[in-house]
Amino acid sequence: MNTLAKKVIVYSMVCIMPIGFGASVIEASPRDKDQRNEQRYEDRGHDRNRERERQHDERIRKEKERHEQEMRRRPHESKREWNARQERERQRHDRELREIRERSERERREWEQREQRERRERQRERDERIRKENERHEREMRRRDHESERQWHERQERERDRHNRALRDIAAILIGIAIGSSSN
Q1: Residue 43 to residue 99: CA distance in whole angstroms
Q2: CA atoms of 66 and 63, how far apart (whole Å)
Q3: Among 84, 139, 145, 162, which residue is least crowded by beta carbons within 10 Å?
Q4: What pLDDT score was predicted for residue 4?
């Protein structure tokens, strides 16, 4: 009986340990759709754009509700007064909708111009970094007075690797710019 109890305890522990290990691995793994950490690069400016569109739609909705309320006939209002008020309200409503659309269009153009300025600035920064890196690379590739032939070739090899890494980093900026502009 004593050996049977020991075997039951050992086998149950052997079965429970992988289950516990698996549960801890699953708990430690990142979640599939953790929204707090997942904002894609190309979505950066589009949240502002969506917010601007939402505000535009909200302004139009409020104006239409106000217009419908104003178009209803009021108690103790003659048909002639009502028709005159409806005509004034139609004109005012058309003017208000036109102003809302013009304002939204103006905001959209300003947003696009701001995005273009930012994109050009990032491009200028990238070009400047490439220019500086190439100048630095040229200086480093020249042989120094105190260097032997072997030391110079070893330094050139290291410099080529460093230069290629630097250019890849700078190219990543260009890819980011391309992603940002293609999503517009």
Answers
A1: 29
A2: 5
A3: 145
A4: 80
CB 166 within 8 A of CB 133: yes
Question: With the CA atoms of 93, 97, 98 and 103 taken in that order, what torsion angle do they form, in degrees rounded to the nearest 10?
Answer: 140
Write the pLDDT tens digit of every residue in 120-152. 998 898 889 889 989 988 988 888 888 899 999
Residues ≥6 apart with Cβ < 8 Å to 53: 104
Q: Give the model's pLDDT for residue 44.
A: 56
User: What are the pLDDT digits (tens) for 90-99?
Assistant: 999 999 999 9
| pLDDT for 65 | 92
Q: Give Cα 184 distance to the centre of its chain.
A: 11
* First-last CA distance in the chain: 76
C-alpha distances in angstroms, 46 versus 53, 85, 103, 112, 123? Answer: 10, 42, 19, 11, 20
Distances from the Cα of 68 to the Cα of 57, 62, 64, 72, 158, angstroms: 16, 10, 6, 7, 75
Task: Look at the pTM and tell me if it is higher than 0.90.
Answer: no
Give the total residue count for the chain: 184
